[in-house]
Amino acid sequence: MKTTVIWIGALIIGAILGLLGLGWLDEVMNFVATVYTRLFQLLAVPTIVLAVMTTFATFGSKGSGRIFGRTLIYTLLTTFAAAAVGAVLYVVIAPGNLPVGTTLECCGVAAAQGPDVTYTDHILSIIPNNIVKPFLEGNVLSLLLLAFAIGFGLSKLPESENKSAVVKFLLGLQELLFLLIRGLIWTLPLGIIAFAAQLSAQVSAGVVADSIGKYVLVVLGGNVIQFFVVLPLFLLVRGLNPLHVLSKMTPAVLMALFTKSSAATLPVTMDTAENRLGISSKVARFVLPICTTINMNGCAAFILVTSLFVMQNGGTPLTWSTILLWILISVVSAVGNAGVPMGCYFLTLSLMSGIGAPVAVLGVILPIYTIIDMIETAENVWSDSCVSAMVDKDLT
Predict the structure, then answer these.
(1) What is the DSSP letter of 1?
(2) pLDDT of residue 158
């Protein structure tokens, strides 16, 4: 409770500082926010890799397989629910088309933001051909494959001094990493002030002034319903108190809100799940790294709603069969998305480019995507927390 009060206080202070409109202060806050984001990204990759390796190596493939199976089921259920909520809201609210001139003025803005990558290229990029390259590039999916392979291999090795030495070395690295994480979390109120000031300055400068009405209402409304209604219902069905789970996981959700990266938030999510919510380390250190990569509720909703909006502006009739098809596409795409800032935006851009839709519409969305990305990421981490809590409940 004390930590939550401190973080909320830091949030209020940061928002006030951002509204002052002082150029030098905004630069300082941007610098501090960037430092914290880089530090958490630095810790995120080894956290994911070591968590998966040590879990497989320590608990064996049989137990891990059971945990992974339940994690995958809950992930798919919650992600499909998020996409379905987005689809229903889109049909009910029915956003209209943008003026032709608006999309023309933004032509090239979205297209210049990321490379044109096909799904074949995306799949091939996951399969590593160099053991060092995934670490250098921060390719989380490739690193997960390596971690699974190494952890599974260690679990299958016969007991020996060599195996014990390797496992102890990995566990020692993990303990050192968690020590660094706890130290960073101790100083985090300063980072929260900087993140809040950064956002407040953007809002006061009119970054979100060019909202596009009903589209934004669908995206944000879907996230709110998923966050406060759908996910709590999942918890209630499993016999868990949503208010209790959310109150304990608040630090991680707030961190996700400001970093806009579930991967960068992972160290905080794991620490909060174990030490505040009381999830077993076996579950938290295995489920949360996987969820960070594949459990993207907010991303699925964004891909679906934005794809429908872009296709509609391109003249594609939105029949129920089209909507159902894109629910499936959005879920599969979200599962393969990286938990990094603007990951959903670039993925949607690639999908729309691939079908020849008017990607200039994404240029109109770009100025307000910062706010959307923040809320989506908070929802993703909240969903990760729910999945880990449900898995822990099932296995206890």
Answers:
(1) -
(2) 86
Cβ of 384: how many Cβ atoms within 10 Å? 35
Give the integer Cα–Cα distance in Å for 258 and 281: 26
Please give the model's pTM, rounded to 2 decimal places: 0.69
User: Which residues, at least 6 apart from 262, have a Cβ–Cβ distance to it below 8 Å?
Assistant: 256, 269, 292, 296, 339, 377, 380, 381, 384
- Spell out the residues 6+ positions from residue 53 whose beta carbon is closer than 8 angstroms to its own: 147, 150, 151, 154, 170
What is the pLDDT at residue 108? Answer: 44
d(CA 343, CA 337): 7
Which string of DSSP letters, residue by residue, matches 138-155? T-HHHHHHHHHHHHHHHH
pLDDT the model gives residue 198? 72
Angle made by CA atoms 16, 2, 225, in degrees to the nearest 5: 70
Give the three-state DSSP class for 278: coil
**CB-based contact 358:206 (threshold 8 Å):** no
Provide block-wise average pLDDT over 10 residues at a time, the chain (396 residues).
73 85 86 80 72 69 71 93 95 77 44 49 73 74 79 85 89 84 80 77 52 82 95 96 94 86 85 93 87 87 93 86 90 68 72 73 71 89 96 88
Angle ∠(22,26,31) on CA atoms, nearest 5: 155
User: CA–CA separation, 265 vs 259, rounded Å?
Assistant: 7
Number of H helices, E strands in the chain: 18, 0
Distance of alpha carbon 390 from alpha carbon 239, whole angstroms: 9
Q: Measuring CA to CA, which residue among 274, 279, 337, 346 is closest to residue 306?
A: 346
Q: How far apart are CA 193 and CA 29, in angstroms?
A: 8
Which pLDDT score is estimated for 219?
92
Confidence (pLDDT) at 4: 63
Burial classification of residue 202, based on how many CB atoms lie within 10 Å of its CB (0-12 exposed, 13-18 middle, 19 or more buried) = middle
Q: What angle do CA 7, 8, 11 make, to 5 degrees?
A: 90
Q: What letter does residue 361 receive in the DSSP assignment?
A: H
Tokens of 129: 């051909």
**pLDDT for res 338:** 54
Cβ-proximal residues to 242 (8 Å cutoff; 6+ apart), any chain = 231, 232, 235, 236
